[in-house]
Amino acid sequence: TRVLLTGGSGFIAAHVLDILLERGHSVVTTVRSEEKVQKIREAHPNVPTSKLDFRIVEDIAQEGAFDEAVKIDGLEAVIHTASPFHFNITDTKKDLLDPAIIGTTGVLKAIKKNAPSVKHVVITSSFAAILNPHKGLYPGHIYSEQDWNPITLEEAYLNSSNGYRASKTFAEKAAWEFIEKEKPNFTLSTINPPLVMGPIVHYLNSLDALNTSNQRTRNFLQGKCKEEIPDTGVYLWIDVRDVALAHVKAIEVPEAAGLRFFATAGKFSNKAICEIIRKHFPEYHSELPSVDVKGGDYPEGPIYGYDNARTAKVLGIEFRSLEDSIVDLVKSLKSVGA
Ligand code: NDP
After folding, report:
1. Cα separation of 209 and 322, whole Å?
2. What is the pLDDT of residues 298-308, one digit of tens each?
3. Class of the 2-199+235-265+307-319 domain?
4. Does the pLDDT value for residue 123 go beyond 90?
């Protein structure tokens, strides 16, 4: 299948790209600069342009940003991953909401207008569009695809964490509304992962410009948690290779059409990450908090559960263990100088 992948330089997208190629798909990916085109091309030296090609889309927040990029002969599927995921923002609307929402509606409008051969679209949404921030640890509740974050526009502006969660919630809602109102020729699936961890691709990354969800592991390696292990925040996670495969399966499996997928491996805590590093990497012992340092553990009482059955059954995902994910992440961080 000929697939357009947006944001091909991202942490998750780099794995989606590799899995698409492995499974014989032909990929066109958007990135923001010629420099990123070169890096990705150099990392795939034996892949011909017919299998891997590029389009530059500098800013997905601009109306019409994807109008030209989707004009690809024989294009059948689109995987839209590009969206800001970081908290160092100055303007919630400009830095988070606009690229998330306009990026999503923009790619859907462009496909409807300029790419009539597209049959299926997959969008990377998030657990951020599922969780209910007013409920805290929500004991007894089982999160699933049925849940929607009730966050409001007003709440989006309270802090950057709300801003990010609102950006993902509003973008996903806008996508389903587009399908309902515009009745396009294509179907939609969304993949809604919680915290995504696992190996980075070295050619796109440095320790300083590391994607947000892997920073907590890097911080352990850099001795930043010696006094206290930070609060875990959200206690659900998935390995990047599993969530990437879920995106690819969502374009391959017809039953995925019209569904959200709460792609979750299970629970984790920051303390568990620390103990995995301690067990496997003696070279970092001097940077780690000692075993009796406080913080980062699961809360004392019960917390929410999760239902990942749809992702396992419909997409056939078998979830990697936290141990495998963190070991491979730490190895990849070493390769960029950790
Ligand atoms: P990255 O920061 O690595 O990837 C984000 C991608 O989006 C990058 O390719 C980035 O390009 C691109 N991007 C951001 N803003 C713009 C813009 N204005 N114009 C064009 N491109 C833009 O993070 P992840 O790989 O983790 O995130 C990918 C997707 O997964 C996002 O939709 C995110 O919300 C979602 N997600 C991530 C989770 C996680 O824990 N990692 C959890 C749940 C969902 P560039 O790098 O060139 O700026």
Report:
1. 23
2. 999 999 999 99
3. alpha beta
4. yes
Q: What angle do CA 92, 200, 164 make, to 5 degrees?
A: 15
What's the CA-to-centroid distance between 13 and ligand 1, angstroms?
8
Atom 4 of ligand 1, nearest CA residue: 10
Atom of ligand 1 nearest to the CA of 13: 25
Q: Where are the domains of the chain?
A: 2-199+235-265+307-319
- pLDDT at residue 204, rounded to an integer: 82
From ligand 1's centre to the CA of 302, what distance in Å?
Answer: 32
pTM: predicted TM-score of the whole model, two decimal places: 0.98
**C-alpha 283 – ligand 1 centre gap (Å):** 31
- Pocket-testing residue among 30, 81, 105, ligand 1, by greatest number of atoms within 8 A of Cβ: 81
Positions of E strands within the chain:
2-6, 26-31, 52-56, 75-80, 120-124, 142-143, 187-191, 195-197, 236-239, 260-261, 266-267, 305-306
Q: How far is the CA of 36 from the centre of ligand 1 (A)?
A: 14
ipTM: 0.99
